[in-house]
Amino acid sequence: MYAQMIKSEATKEDPEKLAAFQARIDADDKIEPKDWMPLGYRKTLVRQIGQHAHSEIVGQLPEGNWVTRAPTLERKAILLAKVQDEAGHGLYLYCAAETLGVSRDELTEDLLSGKMKYSSIFNYPTLTWADMGAVGWLVDGAAIMNQVPLQRTSYGPYARAMVRICKEESFHQRQGYDIMMKMANGTSAQKRMAQDALNRFWYPALMMFGPSDKDSVHSEQSMAWKIKMNTNDELRQKFVDQTVPQAEYLGLTVPDPAVKWNDKTKRYDFSEPDWDEFFDVIKGNGPCNTERLAARNRAWDDGAWVRDGFLAHARKKAARRMAAE
Ligand code: 3HC
Fold first, then answer.
1. What average pLDDT does the segment 259-279 reach?
2. What's the confidence (pLDDT) of residue 12?
3. Which atom of ligand 1 is found nearest the CA of 86?
4. Nearest CA to ligand 1 atom 23
5. Is the pLDDT of residue 1 over 50?
6. Which residue has a Cα nearest atom 9 of ligand 1?
């Protein structure tokens, strides 16, 4: 429906302008905020960058949950830094979205009301310390797989924001894998926890790449505009190919009996996630959707006095300046 709307809006645009715009995209030119762009391009970017920013912000919740329970001071400091990085990623991305003419307040309102989505993965609970390892290894790993190609995306501010984000996500993934190494080589109870975390996060991590290509609404147009650089299935396959040997190195088993190296395709075969579960989660019915939105709404309401204070200060300063002129 939305993709159709974008296509019909695109056909309303001046065909000459559209052709010149597409030629710039095809020549790998970067589109900058003041350049002409089709309305559909702008809307798709606001949706994708906004959703991405929300994912960074909501993504702090399952990990923030473990800051007070990290097993050592060092682990606590690392986790705190990681959670703080995610807040920073959210801010870069909101700034990139603002260059398209939407305000951060509008985006926040759409997140808090449930109108805009955030990544499905953050609607799953983090039950044990091993989940911090699995989140870093698998969730940040999947995020990097998706975001490294986005450094070459056609919209300049988005591509540039992605450079720093990817550097930090690589550190996040390594810290997750490091936790998994410790757990997998620890006591038998720790190894069981690591395996259990892998069992619970494997399919939700595969879902992060979006529905299978045949059900992806936006991929075709987004790839033509280089807002997306790969299809959902391409990235999912790359992720499986990268992650299965990492699981083997840990001595853990991927919870999918169909995972097998295919000598013909030179890729791993694997089972698709349960797509009914995925669509249910993105409709708001996952295990933690209600809890996550309630936490964000509470944080927004609790922060009202800070925003009011800043606004009052800014108004007072402006009034003083006007009186002096
Ligand atoms: N979670 C929630 N919604 C999802 C989703 C997911 N994992 N995957 C797809 N969807 C939604 C889409 O938004 C779309 O719904 P909409 O029309 O209401 O917006 C619908 O499912 C159909 O999917 P499409 O394949 O047509 O959608 P896209 O072309 O947008 O592809 C995407 C989905 C691959 C996630 C793409 O949006 C993308 O590459 N986004 C940028 C990266 C991003 O957002 N990453 C978030 C990961 S979490 C993270 O980075 C935090 C870090 O700390 C780990």
1. 98
2. 77
3. 53
4. 216
5. no
6. 210
Q: How many C-beta atoms surround the C-beta of residue 308 within 10 A?
A: 10
Q: In Å, how far are 42, 57, 208, 235, 318 from 213, measured between CA atoms?
A: 23, 27, 13, 11, 52
**For helices 289-302 and 304-324, what crossing angle results, to 10°?**
40
pLDDT category, 8, cuts 50, 70, 90?
low
How many other C-beta atoms are found inside a 10 Å radius of the C-beta of residue 270?
21
Instruction: Report the C-alpha gap between 7 and 315 in whole angstroms.
Output: 43
Amino acid identity for residue 80 in this structure:
L
- The CA distance from 211 to 217, in Å, is 9
Q: What is the pLDDT of residue 325?
A: 86
* CB distance 86 to ligand 1 below 6 Å: yes
Q: Locate 308 and state its tokens.
A: 């009011």
Could you report how far apart the first and last alpha carbons of the chain are, in Å? Answer: 53
Contact 290, 123 (CB under 8 A): no
150-204 pLDDT, tens digit per residue, is 999 999 999 999 999 999 999 999 999 999 999 999 999 999 999 999 999 999 9
Measured in Å, residue 204 CA sits from the centre of ligand 1 at 13
Work out the angle at residue 205's Cα, subtended by the Cα atoms of residues 197 and 260, and round it to the nearest 5 degrees.
Answer: 85
SS3 assignment, position 262: strand
